Amino acid sequence: MIMDFSKFLDENFDIKEWVNAAFKSQKDPTVKKDQYATTMVMKLQMFIQEVNNVIEEASQQAVQNLPRVIREIEAVKQEASLLQDQMRMVKEDIQKVEHDTSQSMQMLLQLDNIKSRMQAASNALKEADNWSTLSADIEEVFDSQDINVIAEKLVGMQQSLQILVDVPDYKDRCQHLEKLKNRLEAMLSPQVVAAFNAKSLESAQVYVKIFSNIDRLPQLYKYYHKCHKTQLLNQWKTIVETNQEETVVEWLSEFYDQMFSTWHTQVQWCSQVFKEPEKIVSQLLTETLAAMEPSIPYCIANFLESKSSPLDALMEVLQVSERFAKSIETALESHAEGPLGSEYATTLAMAIYAPYRSYVQRYENYEEAALSTHLNNIPLDKQEVMDSVRVLGESVNKLFSAANKGNERCLKLTHGCGYISLLQALKNYFVNYGKEFRRVLTNLREKIKMGDNDPWALFQHSLRIIQTCGELILHVEELDDSLMSNILHSIGKQTPSTPKIGGEIRLRVNPFHQYTELLIEKVEDREALELLVTKLEEEMPSVLEVVKKDFSALSVDAHRFAFDIVFAQIKEHLQEVSTMEIWTSASAGGALTADLPTFSLSPQEYITQVGQYLMTIPQHLEPFTTQDNPALLVAVKHGKLPYTEEQESFEQIADLWLESMARGAMHMYCEEILKIPEITVHASRQLVTDIDYLSNVLDDLGLQPSETVKNIETLLKCSKDNFDEESENMPRRLVSVLKGMRGL
């Protein structure tokens, strides 16, 4: 039987698992478990005895070795102390060497400085001698006309001059060298021009090397630009002179095609000659655009003078320039390693859009003229009242059609840069329309006074005018939202919150898309536009607030106009109440009628006519209130009927009108009653009957009589003895008038 005692070494040793495993490993069926257990215990005891023997032997050996270990530790301590002393001595030696070395290094440095100065002096003497030698031979070299030798001599003199910076006549020598360079450049200029005109790569490469060596490479670029700029300007002049029957649109289209073709061919050629071909060719196009004769602004101005719609004509020209700008932008991007942002790309973009900057600056004038012309062509007034109301309604779509076109035009023509100008033009446009609208209302009042018209037909017309005001408000709110959205989406992208340098915004976007820089000339105009965007981003409620207020006021005027039309009939019935003879007539009531109860009296005709008139108002409002009419609801919300309180919401328009008419009638009725100088007892009872009738009519309409009406009725009913008591909490003016009227 083999037993595994290695398990006793495990950290997680489990005695139960070990015993069970030992019994499972016993395969002999003839051996009983108790016999097997006895054998296993015996083996464990033997194993324990063996372990004890090993431990005892190891302990005795450790005890025997302990003195020797102590002696070895003492020896190590002595060696460590000796090593520490030696390291201290070495450290002192190192410090001494460092000190001595420092002094030696300082001396070596001084010697090296002396050597450098002597070497510099030697070089200066050599270069001075070299300068003298080169200066003496230079005239002979120039006489030889050998440009390579001349260039070599000038380079040598240039190198010598770099060493002779501290000589007294350094400036004079620099001027002398520049004059020599000018002589070489003058000698080379015809050959350089010929090489560029002939597109000779070999010659151009030679001249690039020469001009680069003498630090005159920018001058070589100027020769290159001058040669090709002259060719392009001649092409432009030919296009204009040979196509007189065409316009600047066709001229620019053809010339831009030639410039774009030049860009591609010259970039390919320059890439074999110059280090920055895209920059050099872009500068060529920039200089060409600035030197065109006749200039693009001049041609555009002449073109616009012949057009009835300058803005549309300007957009036509701009589209040609923008196609060219897009082509150049794509070409530059194909050669650029990263996003466009180089100075030469920005300068070229500015040159392409330069002719349009003055028009963007005057954009407000152009838009005002266009909108004013359109407004003058919108009919607002006719001979007949019905026709005037109709054309007023039709004017809304025409009015906002032009405004929406202006919105689209601003995006296309100015890329949003003209929105401040457009907003001002739109404000003037709508305010002028509002003035015309009010003028029409005034004319309608005069026509109504002079004509014999059905009052309810006039009321229907006035409601249509109110509905027109609602349509104006709805349309202006829609336009307002569109304007704010367009401003944020067009200008908001161009005005990132980037740091400013010297008052200018650092361009971090494609210069061909930075329209605020391309089209807006004045810094303050750009800042104003940025401020507008900031306000909109901070949730500015409206950009047409002035127009909204004006149209709301227009709705108030229209409501007053409609009210006056409807109220005219009530006014006609009530305006002579104070002068009726019944109030003072002695024959109006006799002894017989004086004792009759109040209910035996009938209301007079004037008040019954007022009551019947009020009862008919809902049916005349029905055509406008039974159908969904958001325009009328908006107009009522922004307008205010006389004698009504301002409220945000209401259930029925008819209720508002009834309330307005009823309160107006009660107000006028009370004022007329208070004008009655004196009243008899019978007339007083009759007046109470009239007031009761009006109160009943109001009750049928779901309305309540005013406090003034109630107070008058109370003071007319009360006896002389109770008058003071009843009138105690009433207005003094009312009490005084009623007391005098009744002769109390």
Summarize the structure.
This protein is mainly alpha-helical and 744 residues long. The chain is 76% helix and 1% strand. It is built from 26 helices and two strands.
What key phrases describe this protein's structure?
mainly alpha; 1% strand; 744 residues; 2 strands; 4 domains; flat; two-stranded antiparallel sheet
Describe the structure.
The structure is a single chain. This protein is mainly alpha-helical and 744 residues long. It has four domains: 6-113, no CATH class; 216-361; 364-550; 575-742, no CATH class. Helix content is 76%, strand content 1%. The protein contains 26 helices and two strands. It has a two-stranded antiparallel sheet with strand order 1-2. β1 (500-501) and β2 (504-505) form a beta hairpin. The protein is flat and about 155 Å long. The termini are far apart. The model is unreliable at 497-507 and 588-594 (pLDDT under 50).
